[in-house]
Amino acid sequence: MSEPATVIHMDDGKAAGASSSYATAPAAAARRGLPLLLRSGADGFRRCLAVIDFLLRVAAFGPTLAAAISTGTADERLSVFTQFFQFHARFDDFTAFTFFVVANAIAAGYLVLSLPFSAVGIVRPKATGVRLFLLLCDVVVMCLLTAAGAAAAAIVYVAHWGSRRANWVPICMQFHGFCQRTSGAVVASFLAVLVFIVLILMAACTIRRRRS
């Protein structure tokens, strides 16, 4: 005689719990493979962008400070025949270079002051007001740096190549050190402008995600 088959009855609640646990297991395993900052979903993504924002501000501080110091200390004397007859090239001989030094010094100071506000975005990813404030300030400082860099680049171009129509001769063959310092400063300043563009795009994307 065959034994009666044993029928196992499962409660509907227990079955639903088991199926949900099996469904969430792959999601939990997938989250373990993600970086720590991205495991909490949207907040983790915002926190990750805030960390990148903080690091980019630290990275942009170097070029702006270097550009201000390099141009502000650009000073070269060229002796002709005797030491009593000299040509002198200083940054404050050109209004564009003075504006360039001031703009980069302001940008460097702003980057330092903006670090605590950027750190707030790491601690509180949903703080939209701080991000909007930094976005507006970043736009203003980027425009200031762009204007100063363009003005300084025009002077550097004329110093290197001159202008035949205006009868301006290039001076970089004589004032090589002065031109080298100012040219490097202009390149460093435009690198900082690129970093500000990235910061602005990141802040705009973060604010848009929060409002959507």
Question: What does it look like?
Answer:
- It holds the Pfam family CASP_dom.
- It is a multi-pass membrane protein.
- Keywords: Cell membrane, Membrane, Transmembrane, Transmembrane helix.
- This is CASP-like protein.
- The protein is mainly α.
- It has a domain at 42-72 and 93-209.
- 71% of the residues lie in helices and 7% in strands.
- The chain has helices spanning 12-32, 42-72, 95-123, 128-161, 176-211; strands at residues 75-80, 82-90.
- The protein has a two-stranded antiparallel sheet.
- Helix 2 runs antiparallel to helix 5 (176-211), helix 3 (95-123) packs antiparallel against helix 4 and helix 4 packs antiparallel against helix 5 (176-211).
- The chain is elongated and about 60 Å long.
Shape designation: elongated
The SS-based structural class is mainly alpha
Gyration radius, rounded: 30 Å
Strand line-up in the sheet with most strands: 1-2
- Low-pLDDT sequence parts: 1-31, 33-39
What is the oligomer described by this structure? Answer: single chain
Q: Find the count of extended strands (DSSP E, 2+ residues).
A: 2
Helix content: over 70%
- Strand count, sense and closure of the main sheet? 2 strands, antiparallel
Write down the secondary-structure element order. Answer: HHEEHHH
Mean pLDDT: 78
- Cα(first) to Cα(last) distance is 69 Å
* β-sheet strand percentage: 5-15%
The number of helical segments is 5
Protein name: CASP-like protein
Keywords: Cell membrane, Membrane, Transmembrane, Transmembrane helix
Pfam families: CASP_dom
Subunit structure: Homodimer and heterodimers.
